Amino acid sequence: MPALPSHRRPAPFDRFWFGAPYYPEHWNAAEREADPPLMAAAGVNAVRMAEFAWDLLEPVEGRYEFGFFDEAIERLGRHGISTFLCTPTAAPPRWLTAEHPETLRMNADGVPLQHGSRQQCCHQSELFREYSRRIVRAMAEHFAGHPHVVGWQTDNEFLCHFAECHCPNCQQAFREFLRERHRTVERLNRAWGNAFWAQTYRRFDDVLTPRPHKPTWTNPAQHLDYFRFLSWGVTRFQHDQVEILRRVNPKWTIFHNGLFGHIDYRGAFARDLDVLGYDNYPFFDPDPERRPRSQAFGLDRARGWSGNFIVPEQQSGPGGQGSYFHDQPEPGEVRRMAWTSIARGADSLLLFRWRTCRFGAEIYWCGILDHDNVPRRRYEEVKRLGGELKRVGGELLGTSVHVEMAVAQCDQEVFDAHSILNLGLAGPGQVAERIHGAAFEAGYAVGCIHPADDLRGVKCYVIPHWALFHPDWVEPLRAYAAAGGVLVVGARTATHDWNNNHIAEPSPGVLRELCGVAVAEYGRQNRPDRRTLELELDGQRVATEGWYETLEPAAGTDVLARWTSRHLAGQPAIVCRSEGAGKVLYVGAYFGEALIARLLPLWARLSGLQPLWPGVPSGVSVVRRDKPGAQYWFFINGTDGERRIEKVPAGTELLTGAHAGADWILPPHEVAIVKT
Amino acid sequence: MPALPSHRRPAPFDRFWFGAPYYPEHWNAAEREADPPLMAAAGVNAVRMAEFAWDLLEPVEGRYEFGFFDEAIERLGRHGISTFLCTPTAAPPRWLTAEHPETLRMNADGVPLQHGSRQQCCHQSELFREYSRRIVRAMAEHFAGHPHVVGWQTDNEFLCHFAECHCPNCQQAFREFLRERHRTVERLNRAWGNAFWAQTYRRFDDVLTPRPHKPTWTNPAQHLDYFRFLSWGVTRFQHDQVEILRRVNPKWTIFHNGLFGHIDYRGAFARDLDVLGYDNYPFFDPDPERRPRSQAFGLDRARGWSGNFIVPEQQSGPGGQGSYFHDQPEPGEVRRMAWTSIARGADSLLLFRWRTCRFGAEIYWCGILDHDNVPRRRYEEVKRLGGELKRVGGELLGTSVHVEMAVAQCDQEVFDAHSILNLGLAGPGQVAERIHGAAFEAGYAVGCIHPADDLRGVKCYVIPHWALFHPDWVEPLRAYAAAGGVLVVGARTATHDWNNNHIAEPSPGVLRELCGVAVAEYGRQNRPDRRTLELELDGQRVATEGWYETLEPAAGTDVLARWTSRHLAGQPAIVCRSEGAGKVLYVGAYFGEALIARLLPLWARLSGLQPLWPGVPSGVSVVRRDKPGAQYWFFINGTDGERRIEKVPAGTELLTGAHAGADWILPPHEVAIVKT
Amino acid sequence: MPALPSHRRPAPFDRFWFGAPYYPEHWNAAEREADPPLMAAAGVNAVRMAEFAWDLLEPVEGRYEFGFFDEAIERLGRHGISTFLCTPTAAPPRWLTAEHPETLRMNADGVPLQHGSRQQCCHQSELFREYSRRIVRAMAEHFAGHPHVVGWQTDNEFLCHFAECHCPNCQQAFREFLRERHRTVERLNRAWGNAFWAQTYRRFDDVLTPRPHKPTWTNPAQHLDYFRFLSWGVTRFQHDQVEILRRVNPKWTIFHNGLFGHIDYRGAFARDLDVLGYDNYPFFDPDPERRPRSQAFGLDRARGWSGNFIVPEQQSGPGGQGSYFHDQPEPGEVRRMAWTSIARGADSLLLFRWRTCRFGAEIYWCGILDHDNVPRRRYEEVKRLGGELKRVGGELLGTSVHVEMAVAQCDQEVFDAHSILNLGLAGPGQVAERIHGAAFEAGYAVGCIHPADDLRGVKCYVIPHWALFHPDWVEPLRAYAAAGGVLVVGARTATHDWNNNHIAEPSPGVLRELCGVAVAEYGRQNRPDRRTLELELDGQRVATEGWYETLEPAAGTDVLARWTSRHLAGQPAIVCRSEGAGKVLYVGAYFGEALIARLLPLWARLSGLQPLWPGVPSGVSVVRRDKPGAQYWFFINGTDGERRIEKVPAGTELLTGAHAGADWILPPHEVAIVKT
Q1: Interface residue of A206, A216, A521, A533 to substitute, partner B, most B CBs within 10 Å
Q2: Which has fewest Cβ within 10 Å: A77, A167, C54, C136?
Q3: pLDDT at B1
Q4: Where are the alpha helices (DSSP H) in B349-491?
């Protein structure tokens, strides 16, 4: 049974897996023969296979053919390479949908999806679930005792590209989900506020999945439950498979590769797995200079769900499809991105993909090798990385990333609730990225943590604008502050109850007492240029954007900043209350870039937050992974220029084996790991 | 029987109703108990109720439950508050559409709408019409003798959000409408020009509603008839209800709350009602400085349809849904917007809504009270307004708004005809708003009047670019000019016949004689920066945009301006002809901002137009409502700064009771009403 | 049997047809009576008729009525005007689709198109094909011996507005096409790379037309085959008609009016016709100054498909529909555009349309005459043109346009392949237009030629970025270079095989040997501003955009330019290899404006390319049409200012009859044709 998900949880691997997704079904016999030694030379010890090979594994209904993969696994095994298999259910074979078109998903207009890309089948179709269980059972039983098969990936990138489904199967399943959640239709009517617009249901069977603009705005409580249902449904679908795999071979490591929307990667979905997988493609950020920062956020968020992870797909070349194609990574970037993933929580890593495929929709998702199979600089870089990981990888297992400042993240319900009624405001994820980015640039040991997770050691914890807020989170946050932490709560937090309805009390609702404040007035700033609202903090004015609140501090709550503009002038804007050894700040404004820049020093002052390793030049990030008795300091040069670090911690630099401690030169995109 | 619609018609109220839409079904017993006294304290004398309560009134088909509203009406009545009920047909209960999905509307792709928002049923479904009549009859009969029920609103915001429907019911109804309109299919073929693209129909049963891009451009005559059908259909649906209500209790006042597209609020729809309702939300204009101007236009246009109106929903807080949320009104703005509505034609006014709902799609349509039910500044403002209306409201009944300059407006067929073939040009409504806005800023007593309406007293009347033009309007316009008016006709006017086909004569067609001109050449200006076209007026050049025409003046017609650019150089651009005591101008260009700025002084000079009350500072608007023996001068400060008016009319200022006549200071957003 | 298509092929006309599409069914008897003499006065000798008149020709199924057109043809014939008839199948009558809705096309969502615009029927419906054959047979037989009927246009603008169809007929036909193309499903599986995403088909009957986003990216090989199928299907539909017409009267000239996407106008489609028709509307380019250049490209591309052409629709006034309306042509522009069409390959020309229609979706597609039927300046211009063509037109027949520099164009498969996987890069057509435009401005005799067409006389030939590349084209290109030509191959060329899969060798694949180069690395430049890549050519640096490649020259290949930026510094960017008497250049970058400006002089230097007639001022273009014994030099002033040409060729200027040779003044939009 895997440990409970937490951002601190290490992955349950006994070795650092390094390699690539591999699709032998795309290659001819000569290529398949030549690949394993070339992999082994690059330090590869694992591949992922059979991800989209259902057509090969079960070419005709009920006839299973495993010989091709038996051979491939065996051939790789001979070169010391283990295999993670995939349940191939993301790409159902044509015979399945040809015979059973009722298994196809349906968009909001009722148009069925079709064979010709992938992920066309509905997870709520009982029939498709049955086919899924059959192929998984057959594969599991066949590969049960295979010494080179070490684990499984479930399906592929659940809810990527297309999350919703409105097919008849989903109508039934949605009602099943609602019955389970609300028990009686009367409770559902109350929970959803169906008195509004005469939406009262007589019975669960009358409920439909919500479809936007049919003809107008949908019920936000219904819509949030629908998004919860998506998570519930995909979790149930995955559980079918996990149950079979665990029964057949309890030693297998099972993960899924994500992370996409509408799935609760902290809840039942993650608890069913040994470890989460995070497909990391930093080049979706088109700005090369911003990529180190955005990659760091992506990784910290990934870790925030349930701890260290495997990267089943790490960008190893440009990716592209249809109308986009990433930049080609410059020399050093692929390796730097991989090390960045490891520094921030990857306990195993596969570079997507071994070789670029010559056909299909992903011709331009480039792998380690190009279409022409000539090993070039990307291969050489991977080879260097493979060599390094042979020496260093295992040692990192069992460590956690050290975090001193965190931003609240990793709650799908909170994000979904915002998306339904976003009022044109940046979402809590976007705002968290702004705050994370500012802390990242400042050199703090920043991370993403869910409010219900373990906050020990965190000096400053920021909850951006979580309208949806669960009452159970209040006491842990109080305890966090009481123990000396600085808790920062942003405007609009806790304004919605868990059904996504508005609370009946002044905001911040359940956090009112802890924050020592009540919101008196709030407003959207649609044209902040026309009616600018400034607040004064530490004698300096800062313009705000998006949202303002005027605050009524309770007795004992201090006012840190006041509004200075228009009719708000003189009203409290930011307040602070002591809770035990710590402090609770409430910020009655939206976190825009300018405001964050002004608040970050304040938070640091109040919490004693310091850069993780002071004196590091701009462009170099520092991360630390700890385990009892050892600390691993990663210094990563995210720039294309050389950087000099005046002094690094005294210890051994693991990649070079050199003794570190004094000045250290980092060439472009270079990494150093000092063990202390 | 109500008086015929005209912009001058006062509403048939015997008292000024003031209050709010109220949804007791959203609140618990304690809240429902506490509301009436709080309302009464704010001067409320009316609420609107049961707008979306069909599920409560008829929870099971045929079982009516009126007790809840009996109680609510009674409780309010005890505090002197009357009730306007609503026919609740905008939100059909789930049992209706679950049993009868064939009543659902269908979009242009044939996708049925669904339960989960509102307005999902088709007005042309005979079955839905029958259900509508049943619930209305049941309610009408139950509340027939109730002393506190003073009137009704039909449905809610017809054709808001989604106007079209292409369901099978609509196919049938469209043919019924066409039969009624064209009598024979041969006449329909001719009227629609079906010789083009072989569109000839054999029989009415072959005609379909036009759906864009299926696969390409639709027939503009067919499309205009389809839009006319939408108006016809909704009018018929409403008539079902009005007929029942009038039969049960002829004393009830009946209105509808609009105003949305594709409905002819001058024709049968309005004649069925006692008075139109106009839901006024000025904050849809995101620019706070432009809002006084855009609100004024909205109100003048509303009044232009059929005279003074009730505002069943006046913005009392920010409104929002999905991805937008208005600004929070600043102190004084809610009251100022309400007084502006009254100054420009509201004879009763309800502030939307009593309290902000905590669930449903309109959580962020804020009411007088916030979610937490704490009376704050918006309540205080409303209370002040309520007190003022108790003193002043009744006196304003029976007055009309005084207009000296008007722009043609309020013809749905003209607007729909333009929308089908707009050629990328601003619509007649948009252009009218430009002209209205310029006149508003200049302080003229500006309004919106339909060409077939009463133009007495109007000094200058502008028809922007009404391609569709009815021949019956020519004689009244001639008479208007003959009596001394200045008539201005814009380019492209009268180029389409009433079927939306192009005329066979030189334009302006039926207006050619009256304007004394024929258009020789016209052209679209797609890149006015590349080939700028200027005309010279009074010795000064002005650049035009959008559209040009070269004119051939008839004998006796003067040339006021000539083109000076490119191949047009020397050609007449603006001409003027005398008709009796007045003048008719034809402007061979599109009314862009720059051209309007140059034309307005010319029009004023020719017509003797003066600001309604000269010497008023910028940002203050003046409106006058008149009745025999009394004039009410409204001075409204639309700015957030103090404004000094050098001199106001001598009389009593009604809000303060002070004697007016000399200087008057208007604080930000303040209003003064001088009776003379 | 018509000659094989080639850019050099003259049209098979024995006289220069000049006139207009004419729709007598839109006009009353008096108008129909008055039209022929007015046409004759303008020099008209041909009209096109019956294009959308199926409803008139077969008002009831099986009842044919030809009298109306008999009369019209006869009336025109009496004034010396011949008629091209149209098969009226682009606008099926209502009785057809009312009785047989299964003939309607279907969009990607499965929504059927409908009666009410045009082109609503599916070309793959066997039933619709049968109806099409019946009406064509009936018309052909009726008009078989008519002396004034000289030829036919098939249908109208195939695949305009809406190209795809996904109806059940198309599913069947697509499978038929695939069976014909791939023979066995195993071969199809290999050709499409169906091993990717488990897309393997068991049988042809399981294949579907590809629909985007159902739910995600489609297979690029399947998609290309689908686009090929569109061409195949429309060609088959047209062939049904051509076969009938040729059998009935082999002397008729048959053309189609295009040119729209997804049709191979070089292949079977064109070979079935005597000549292609190209509908030329230069005013779709909104920039008046760029129009001469963009019109020239459109015409050269049109000629590139299969030689000289007829223009069945030449813009004679502004065109518009729905939300757009072209500029009004200024005096001289209509005639200049017509002469430009003739200079660049039109062997006959009809001005769209005789008179502007007053009803239907194209009210604003203006013709020679306005809605009011008053002959104005556009008529006068056409009349002048008609007079000139009477003298000059016939003489131009049999000539070809002289080309010295050409850009590869006119391969629908290449363009479709790019569109499916465009990676956000400008398509080969767009890039060709850039190169063509630069050569046009430089005064070169530029044209568009397919690589498999006749390249004799061409000094420099550029293949922009043709990822899809057929191996059969290599040898002709080698021979072209060997004979002294300069061949320029752009980046990405020949990277896809004919199935649209990626090649397995280094690029440029089949061109590698001819170019003497292999591409080592490539990359997309998404933010060229952030990481600018420059190359150095002739000692000067030029910034590139879009795409870069580093090149490995083979022995004997020279490096002309090297990269100077970032990690590419020093790598070859442009190489050159001698092949016989000529040269082959490979350019490892995308052709952006800046790079083209730098390359054009290099290409000219290497190939000896000179302006066709040196010393011509900016804004004047020169074209030459040749036949044995005569050369016709067209000088066209594309500007609105007067232009002086220092010296023209010695000969007769045909429009004035003057002796030319010395200075020549071209007034705005004026044309001179010197015969030498």
Answers
A1: A216
A2: A77
A3: 46
A4: 377-396, 412-420, 428-441, 474-482
Exposed/middle/buried for A650, CB within 10 Å: 0-12, 13-18, 19+? Answer: exposed
| Band of pLDDT at residue B421, cut at 50, 70 and 90 | very high
Whether the ω angle into residue C5 lies within 30 degrees of 0, i.e. cis, is no
Q: Which residues of chain C have pLDDT under 50?
A: 1
What does the mean pLDDT of chain B come to? 97
3-state SS, residue B282 = helix
The DSSP string of A118-163 is: S--B-TT-HHHHHHHHHHHHHHHHHHTT-TTEEEEEESSSTTSS--
Measured distance CA(B379)–CA(B42) in Å, rounded: 8
Chain A and chain B share a number of CB contacts under 8 A equal to 180
Residues C320, B611: Cα–Cα separation, whole Å: 42
Between the CA of residue C331 and those of B305, B479, B545, C186, C353, what are the distances in Å? 45, 40, 20, 62, 18
Give yes or no for a contact between C221 and C191, defined as CB atoms under 8 angstroms apart: yes
Out of C109, C112, C116, name the one closest to residue B199 (CB).
C116
Given an 8 Å threshold on Cβ–Cβ distance, is C198 in contact with A92?
yes
Band of pLDDT at residue B4, cut at 50, 70 and 90: confident
Contacts of C532 in chain A (CB under 8 A): none
For residues B642 and B664, give the distance between their C-alpha atoms in angstroms, rounded to a whole number: 11
Name the neighbours of A, counting chains with at least 3 Cβ pairs within 8 A: B, C
Give residue C183's region: left, alpha or beta (phi > 0; psi -120 to 50). left
B107: closest chain C residue by CA = C111
User: CA–CA separation, A151 vs A274, rounded Å?
Assistant: 10
Would the CB atoms of B59 and A200 count as touching at under 8 Å? yes
pLDDT above 60 for A2: no
Catalytic residue among A58, A313, A388, A433, which?
A313
What pLDDT, on the 0 to 100 scale, is given for residue B2?
Answer: 55
Q: Do C423 and A115 touch (CB under 8 A)?
A: no
Please tell me the distance from the alpha carbon of residue B343 to that of residue B323, in angstroms, as a whole number: 33
The SS3 call for residue C585 is: strand
Q: How many CB pairs under 8 A join A and C?
A: 180
Domains of chain A are: 18-162+231-398 (3.20.20.80), 405-607 (3.40.50.880), 620-675 (2.60.40.1180)
**Is the CA virtual torsion A161, A166, A167, A169 positive or negative?**
positive
Token output for C490: 């752009």
Query: C360, B208: Cβ pair inside 8 Å?
Result: no
Q: Which of B113, B323, B374 shows the shortest C-beta gap to A424? A: B323
* Residues C522-525: contacts with CB under 8 Å, at least 24 apart: C522/A328, C522/C491, C522/C492, C522/C547, C522/C548, C522/C549, C522/C550, C522/C588, C523/A318, C523/A327, C523/A328, C523/C547, C523/C548, C524/A318, C524/A320, C524/A325, C524/A326, C524/A327, C524/A328, C524/C423, C524/C424, C524/C425, C525/A327, C525/C590
Q: Is A552 assigned a catalytic role?
A: no
Cβ atoms of residues A632 and A673 within 8 Å: yes
Of B198, B221, B527, the CB nearest to C287: B527
Which among A105, A116, A318 has CB closest to C523?
A: A318
pLDDT for residue B435 is more than 60: yes
pLDDT band at residue A165 under the 50/70/90 scheme: very high
**Amino acid occupying residue C510:** V
Q: Which amino acid is at A581?
A: A
Peptide bond into B250 cis (omega under 30): no
How many whole angstroms from its chain centre is CA B593?
A: 23
In the residue annotation, A380 being an active-site residue is answered as no
Contact C361 B208 (CB under 8 A): no
